[in-house]
Amino acid sequence: MRILITGNVGESLPPPYAGIPKRALLIASMLRKRGHTVGIVFVYRHDTEDDLGAGGEYFFDYAKKPTKISKLFFVARHAIRHPFLFSRLLNFYIREHRRFIWEGVVGAAHGVVLEDVVRVFEPDIILSEAAIIRTFMATQIAVRHNIPIIFDTYAEVRDPTILALPGGEKYRAQYWRRLLSIPALIIAPSYYCGKGPQEFAPPGKVSVIYAGIEFEKYRSAPLTKEEARAKLRLPHDGFLIIAVGSLSPRKGHDHMLDAISRMPASLSAHAIICGPDDASWLRDIAREKGILDRTHFFTNLSEDDLIALYRASDVYCDASNTPRACLGMSVTEAMAVGMPVVAYNVGGLPEIVKEGENGFLVPLDDIQKLSEALRRVAELPRGSYGQLTEKSILLAKELVDIRMCAQQMISALEGVYQSAHV
Known about the structure:
The protein is of the alpha/beta class.
């Protein structure tokens, strides 16, 4: 099979090592090992690209990170090059979304690029990440070429704030029913996030496949906790609480900082925050809470250094505080290393965090309860803490080992391919 992965795959090849591009590259690597050919469409190129050994064929909208001016030229160039297709895609976008926005114009230009990619790569199947603008355009190109398309959805169907549509809930339901009737299969990364497409898609079209991680790579990390802390210049005797991911407010890093500030000073609790965005607002909060000297920021780490950061830490804290919390790969990566998890009881997190077994769940936005749960882990006897870590490792292996998840994805792709060629 020739599989083209597109949609919201990520801005670029890593770094940063974000969840969706990492997932796409891991799937590509497993598909290639099975003899399939994989192409992936990213937004732009950069000088330090790392495809994690996936060995795919890569396509880009831009030669480097785009500016407002370069996006304007991008639109003009592709609108002039294929005016009929560009106009058709843009008009269809406006008709379906009932609005004219600049992102839709850029999306139509991307659709023209995708038309070229499809003609060159000649995919048997298109796998499109996140059912928003780029997937909308990929759908039109797939239909145009009679290529089966699979949606790999996240929270965009369930959370109306991600794709705001005029016309109220009635039109939103109509839109999703129309769009979700097109793909041959819809994949969700958790049962929680599968509920959104299940509400609107035809029966039997939605499958849940967890985002797999390289379990053995994380589990067999060679560094001890002491060695990892020394390598990353972290305090050797503190209780380190880590969160990895976007530094946007929806990830709740500010909640974690507040929770840590409420813990007894005797516990020497430190915050470890790793993400690719501007951390200045979080530094201000840490300063306001009096814990800036116990807050450590990391960005754009290599995979090996990220594993070391997990190894150096004592507990993973996921304070995601919106309906978008499907199930982040960083949680399961931390579990594979052997960390308990403290999290808000929201989204897909209860599917992987079992209360009292590998961590603790607290009510959404209850920062005091979050602080108490973190303190509870910090004060656990060594044996009880060890039981939580062992359960985390076991659950990560059972649910998100890439070998199992990739096999499920490959079986799904092969099933769609066979159905299309009956």
